[in-house]
UniProtKB/TrEMBL annotation:
EC number: 2.4.1.-
Family listed: Belongs to the UDP-glycosyltransferase family.
CDD domains: GT1_Gtf-like
Keywords associated with the record: Glycosyltransferase, Transferase
Lineage: Eukaryota, Viridiplantae, Streptophyta, Embryophyta, Tracheophyta
This protein's name: UGT1
Gene3D superfamilies in the cross-refs: Glycogen Phosphorylase B
Gene: UGT1
Catalytic EC class: transferase
Sample GO molecular function, one term: UDP-glucosyltransferase activity
SUPFAM superfamilies: UDP-Glycosyltransferase/glycogen phosphorylase
Species the sequence originates in: Pueraria montana var. lobata (Kudzu vine)
Amino acid sequence: MSTARTHVLAYPFPSSGHVIPLLDFTKALVSRGVQVTLLVAPYNENLVPKNYSPLLQTLLLPEPHFPNPKQNRLMALVTFMRQHHYPVIVDWAKAQPTPPSAIISDFFLGWTHLLARDLHVPRLVFSPSGAFALSVSYSLWRDAPQNDNPEDPNSVVSFPNLPNSPIYPWWQMTHLFRETERGGPEWEFHRENMLFNIDSWGVVFNTFTELERVYLNHMKKELNHERVWAVGPVLPIQNGSTEPEERGGNSTVSRHDIMEWLDSRDEGSVIYVCFGSRTFLTSSQMEVLTRGLELSGVNFILSVRVPDERHVAKEHGKVPCGFSDRVRGRGFIIEGWAPQLVILSHRAVGAFLTHCGWNSVLEGLVSGVVMLTWPMGADQYTNAKLLVDQLGVAVRAAEGEKVPEASELGKRIEKALGRTKERAKAEKLRDDALRAIGNNGGSSQRELDALVKLLNEVKRVESTS
Ligand code: AWU
């Protein structure tokens, strides 16, 4: 009987919103004695803390590059990884004294289902999105509903087999499904990826039971097995405190300046505005947003992304000239990377205008703030539906390009800070989230323990087979 440690491969999709949570999850595995080899490309290596633990190692894989700039970037990247990383991982794994006994990989890397089969180990999907969002995605790609009125901008698509039977305008479905030729090579590429995920051995969600119980149970029923784990919110809880740290990048502005600015504000008097690590506002969206902030009269921190060599933007709205002067004294503008967790956890922040990326949703929930939703794509419309219609902890500000007048947006921003009903629900969910990841038998801690126990058993079977 092997007494070697359980050893798993963790393979994130190389985008901040996907690397950050999977890295935090691997730290939770390491804290339970599991050896983890993180598969990263050189440009993501900076996100991995140096010398975190002898149990957390990295394997550097070839840096992706894109010979055909016309190809869909996601498809080009995943294709590169499948072609150039697959053989390196197989050769490396076969040479290990303690071969990996499982692979945990992002839901954009469905092809690792085949890699796991070659390595004779189970593949677990890591979902950096919630269970509601992945349930929609699985249903969409498996059942592939057709839009009977593609010319009608108000045509809808429904998911009657999901809890709460959600209905969406077709334009809110992922562009990967809507804008690629049905049955064509790209459409089939994305569909195959999701079907591999559905066929995989298990799925680990960055969510918690009290938040998405009905969707976690739905997923188990649909997959016809119980290997579905809710282990989130995976956050950097250091030494048992909830002292936040700067995740995913170095802040563009000094943490001291931000804290000093926030310290001088009344409790709950500031709204934080951010659209994630990869969303660029169009010029018209930026115009309405900044005008709305100006008219709202409230204190705010605005974090906007600026294109860099890895994040190119077809169009990106710039902060209008003179805006910072017009809001001097009540507006703090960050053009680059903001220490989001640090900001959200400050007592002065009472509301969060967010694009509803799932990491931001969880960070907003853990901070107990009211959220204003402005989803832009991907799973964000589903996340907004969960927050607004099902949980009642948020209100809608805008949806993609569908934006209210600046004066109306300003009113919604101003009102957000005074929404006591939503705030009370948000604070209750914050307590649920902290309990779930707390060390006194929280639901996510129990799920993590059950997952590690099963991984240890899988290892034993693997090592005797
Ligand atoms: P988040 O999930 O909020 O958004 P994206 O970066 O857009 O990531 C998937 O990841 C989402 O479900 C998708 O909708 C897609 C994607 N951050 C920060 O610290 N400073 C900044 O200035 C900007 C961002 C952090 C933030 C969060 C992450 C963004 C899972 O949206 O705290 O942890 O970057 O992830």
